[in-house]
Amino acid sequence: MDQWAVLSVSDKTGLAELAQGFLSQGIKLLASGGTYRFLQEHGIEARPLEDLTGFSEILGGRVKTLHPRIYAGILSRETDQDIRDRDTIGAPQIVAVVVNLYPFENRLTQGADQPTLIEEIDIGGVALIRAAAKNFAQVLVLVDPKQYPEALKTPITALSWEDRLRFAQEAFLHIAHYDAVIAQTFSQWRNPPVKPVQEEVYVLSGRKWGELRYGENPHQDAAFYAVPGQEGFQSATLYQGKALSYNNLADADTAWRLSASLPAPNAVAVKHQTPCGVGLGTTLEEAYVKAYEADPVSIFGGIVALKGTVDESLATRLNTLFLEVVIAESYTPEALKILAKKKNLRVLAMPFNLPSYAEEIRTITGGFLVQQRDRVSVPWDRLQHVAGPQADLEKFKQDVTLAWTTVGFVKSNAIVVVKDGMTVGIGGGQTNRIDAARQALEQAKEKAQGAVLASDAFFPFGDVMTEAAKYHVGLVIQPGGSLRDNESIDAANLYQIPLYFTGQRHFRH
After folding, report:
1. What percentage of the chain exceeds 90 in pLDDT?
2. How many helices (H) and strands (E) does the chain have?
3. Exposure of 130 by Cβ count < 10 A (0-12 exposed, 13-18 middle, 19+ buried)?
4. What pLDDT shows up at residue 373?
5. Which of 183, 342, 452, 480 has the CB geometry, 3.0–4.6 Å to 403, for a possible disulfide?
6. Helix, strand, or coil here: 444?
7. What DSSP designation does 447 have?
8. Where on the phi/psi map is residue 494: left (φ > 0), alpha (ψ -120 to 50), or beta?
9. 432 and 446 in contact (C-beta within 8 Å)?
């Protein structure tokens, strides 16, 4: 009995070579509309699917491959009953199915409108792939032109069970990703858009953007998967530098998100996903100088995010220090020439616009946790003065903004001290709040006088206020809400330190 391959592809890359390869094995070709026309134009012998099904495409192409003769040919096993059923309806023996789906994902990333995207939802193609992958022991299924050369290395009749299984798994991954992207897109079309954490079933799929140099440590493999339809590091411009590692991207994301959360111009230095220096200024260079001077030791080998345009003068400053990554909104041509002297320095450019919704995912044993990303900003309308003299908040506005925003990006327990638009002390990752405060204040030393101190969570005791008083801190901002808030309130009144509650905490574990 003749053996057949069904071909129905949107991407014609490598199709002619694959078709010739099948023909050389004695496998005849059945092809759908556009694929059949392509093969004819290339002088490759094939039959249109309608010769088998007895009807042409209908509904503008929405229905063309959904027919019992096709699926009986794909799904039949080599049993007497299946062969009799197949012969009864005149179905061929199909030994290969080659399908790649309508380009929904590509159209999505190109910004296509809703009606266009709906027409890019493939129906018959997904069904063909699923049927062939289910019957992988009898049918070779291919979904990507990259698979064609490997598939042709061995005649179909000689393919091992393991190879067939691998192609089938890749097919199921292909359609799972396809459906996940559509489901994610539909959730954004709803009014209001549905947050992923509100769904009963959480589905996330990404396409590999690239393998990374390594994970957190050189012995760990790592890769970056980009979520279709979302803007981020996958769309950043990489001007130069070595390949990015897992740590580079994790640190760069922290630096970028903090910088994007602050007014421009600003500069953020990050080490191990924790800010080590943050500065605001009237110019981007002034902001960077402040970020550098905040902690000139820790910034070495770190990541710097710059909300603004890097010019020649700032690029020259950046080149005086060993940095892993610099990420900015843009660079002047002269700045890029100067930075190019540091060949290993990764230089990235991308917009500094925070997405309206983004989730964080953390794996745990048996599953994963999902939460909405924390958005950190000063709740000026809810800021409550609870103790000490009333402060001139307009005078402190810049430093309160910087301190409160930065503390949300420091590992808990976190304390940040800010003076004159720059962080002068950062204490983070401590198992108790007083140690975090002592770390930050000891780093600040005399610069803590008149400064703003922010805490990511409430004070469980009055000891932090007492410590702040030793350094003559000018204002303290914290969430409040402790059963022992009165201890901090009493200390603030005793030491005459303005104390403000935000009513909102920003843990970062």
Report:
1. 70
2. 18, 21
3. middle
4. 87
5. 452
6. helix
7. G
8. alpha
9. no
